[in-house]
Specification:
- Among the domains are: 30 residues, no CATH class; 36 residues, no CATH class.
- Helices cover 29% and strands 15% of the residues.
- It contains 4 helices and 7 strands; from the N terminus they run βββαββαααββ.
- The protein has a 3-stranded antiparallel sheet. Strands 4-5 form a two-stranded antiparallel ribbon.
- Strand 6 and strand 7 form a beta hairpin.
- The longest helix has 13 residues.
- The N and C termini lie far apart (73 Å).
- The relative contact order is 0.05.
- The model has no long low-confidence stretch (mean pLDDT 80).
Length: 124
């Protein structure tokens, strides 16, 4: 339950204690966030040793400047068509079309593996 007072967020716990969230946030805003985000509670980017590299205002400014720029569509060049096949090459390819394709022998898994008395599969 929030208690109204000076625009601050003050909550009362089930045990009757009051918690001032604004004060708690202000106290811990320079504490590094938990996880691998490398930011503190304010949103500043942190470097080695917890030093502030970029402030939150710079991060937000860069984000909005980047997102407000129009997207440029780059034209993809069409690939050149393959060279036309000469009549001699066509004749050579026809010879291969008439030959049968050799079939691979596929061995079934039933022939290679057998189940033993204990229920394990072992090679035959």
């Amino acid at each position: 339950m929030a208690i109204k007072g000076k625009g601050r967020k003050i909550y009362k716990t089930a045990q009757g204690r009051t918690i001032d969230l604004d004060l708690l946030i202000k106290r811990n805003e320079l504490t590094p966030a938990v996880g691998n985000a490398k930011v503190n509670a304010r949103g500043d980017e942190l470097g080695p040793g917890g030093r502030i590299i970029r402030k939150r205002e710079e991060v937000v400014k860069d984000y909005y400047n980047k997102s407000s720029q129009p997207v440029v569509n780059e034209q993809v060049k069409a690939k050149p068509k393959a060279d036309p096949i000469s009549a001699e090459e066509k004749e050579m390819l026809k010879e291969f079309d008439e030959e049968p394709v050799p079939q691979k022998k596929t061995s079934s898994t039933k022939e290679q593996w057998v189940e033993d008395n204990e229920g394990n599969f072992v090679k035959k």
